Amino acid sequence: MTAESSHADIVVIGAGIMGLSTAYHLARERPKLRIVVLDAGYLCGGASGRNGGGIRAQWSNEANIRLMQESLHLFGEFAKEHRINTWLRRGGYLFVARSAAKQRALEQSVAVQNECGLSSRLLTAKEARAVVPELEVRDIALASYNPTDAVVFPWPFVWGYAEGARELGVDIRTFTRVIGFEKRGRGIRRVSTTRGSIDTEAVVNAAGAHSADVAKLLEVDMPNRPQRHEICSSEPLKPWLTPLVADLDDGVYFSQSTRGEIVGGVADPEAQPGTDQSSSVRFLALYARALVRLCPRLASVRVLRQWAGLYDITPDSHPIVGPVDEVEGFFQASGFMGHGFMMAPIIGKLLAQHIAHGTPLPLFERWNLRRFRQGRLLEEKMIIG
Ligand SMILES: Cc1cc2nc3c(=O)[nH]c(=O)nc-3n(C[C@H](O)[C@H](O)[C@H](O)COP(=O)(O)OP(=O)(O)OC[C@H]3O[C@@H](n4cnc5c(N)ncnc54)[C@H](O)[C@@H]3O)c2cc1C
Q1: What average pLDDT score do residues 358-370 get?
Q2: Could you identify the atom of ligand 1 that is nearest to the CA of residue 308?
Q3: How far, in Å, is the centroid of ligand 1 from the Cα of 375?
Q4: pLDDT (tens digit, 9 = 90+) per residue, 12-27?
Q5: CATH for 10-49+155-224+316-374 (3.30.470.20, 1.10.8.60, 3.50.50.60, 3.40.50.80)
Q6: How far apart, in Å, do the first and last CA atoms of the chain sit?
Q7: Average pLDDT over residues 50-79
Q8: Which long-range contacts (CB under 8 A, 24 or more apart) does 117-125 make?
Q9: 199 phi/psi in degrees, rounded to 5
């Protein structure tokens, strides 16, 4: 298919990891499909190029745990499958809880995780210190640790999926913004972009924090809201920190990259919806305070780089995936908050199977847009940020 082609079997909006994983898996499932991926900007320009690279199976509900067990497996295979270095480091995740409520959340979550066969375990504060000797454990009531969780460098996954999709014939068009649709009855007829239009009857909305804007062009009302999330990286240090450490109470998290930098962020309790991606001194102050409380040794470390990206927030912190009732052939893959990177390999694969073969997926029923209208909000205790 040439870049000028004006017809596609499927148009994927968004060349972040979610759109690219979906396109790659679609091309594998149905090699003859004409697939076009459109992105308003460049590869890695969205949240997929701006995140902390944390990938974990420590969740509280069974569906998320099982999904992430499968996704972690796909992450592990990625380097070989796509012939690219992913800097995957399986140092585990250490969650800590200070309040009684978060302590209970850890206890309940680890019980479900163990039923799913995950090797996570609860640790006392003293035991947590055996995993990270530099941790200040005075305030810590309980911790949980899963040694098979990991941290990756995000960019190779975006590049790997893009290259893999291109090799399978997928047409990826960057700097091509979707600006409208034409409909035929209850379905889609055409996608309009800043660089011409494409006739198609099937569209995947993987526009991340802009998914609600894209859906609005089809008069589909989605509750997703963008929200800035900041992150920073320190100067490189000698390796000393094995797991990613995350505090369930204030949402601070940090890990050490393979190059030695401490990469981390913290939730801002006063963050407002919006698309501002600038960096703030307020974040540095919040992060420094939370980080140094957990790990006093980091007080003298210099910040090397600071940046921000957009979380794609939904009212129940769960994604919106699959078809919608309002428009035929309009599939969603959005609302992934601060955990869409880790879920993209498995979600892209399952969504591709669903679109290509109509494979029914109970998960997508759970994650359907209509749950908000029906008041069926979902619950997950292991959300940070
Ligand atoms: C600071 C930070 C830290 C994070 N840490 C983690 C982490 O440790 N682990 C984890 O799993 N997740 C993390 N996340 C979340 C994760 O990055 C996202 O959930 C994931 O990258 C979402 O992928 P996506 O493909 O849906 O969106 P994106 O990567 O944002 O891609 C969406 C794309 O859609 C394009 N687009 C938007 N509108 C249009 C339009 N009209 N036409 C065409 N294209 C359009 C955009 O240009 C963009 O490239 C973090 C996020 C941030 C911001």
Answers
A1: 89
A2: 1
A3: 26
A4: 999 999 999 999 999 9
A5: 3.50.50.60
A6: 41
A7: 97
A8: 117/69, 118/57, 118/58, 118/65, 118/69, 118/146, 118/148, 119/146, 119/147, 119/148, 120/57, 120/58, 120/144, 120/145, 120/146, 121/145, 121/146, 123/94
A9: -75, 130
Mutate to test the pocket of ligand 1, among 11, 18, 51 (most ligand atoms within 8 A of CB): 51
Ligand 1: atom nearest CA of 151 is 8
Distance from Cα 42 to the centre of ligand 1, integer Å: 12
Q: What is the number of the ligand 1 atom nearest to the C-alpha of 14?
A: 34
Structure-token match 């979902």, residue found: 378
pLDDT, tens only, 277-308: 999 999 999 999 999 999 999 999 999 999 99
Q: Which atom of ligand 1 is nearest to the CA of 41?
A: 47
In whole angstroms, what separates CA 343 from the centre of its chain?
6
- Lining residues, ligand 1, CB within 6 Å: 13-19, 38-41, 45-48, 50-54, 177-178, 206-210, 214, 229, 231, 265, 309-311, 336, 338-342
Mean local confidence (pLDDT), 201-210: 98
Nearest CA to ligand 1 atom 51: 51
Rounded average pLDDT over 340-360: 95
The tens digit of pLDDT for each residue in 105-156 reads 999 999 999 999 999 999 999 999 999 999 999 999 999 999 999 999 999 9
Give the DSSP letter of residue 258.
T
Cα(347) to ligand 1 centroid in Å equals: 14
Tell me which architecture the domain covering 89-148+225-311 has in CATH. Answer: 2-Layer Sandwich (3.30)
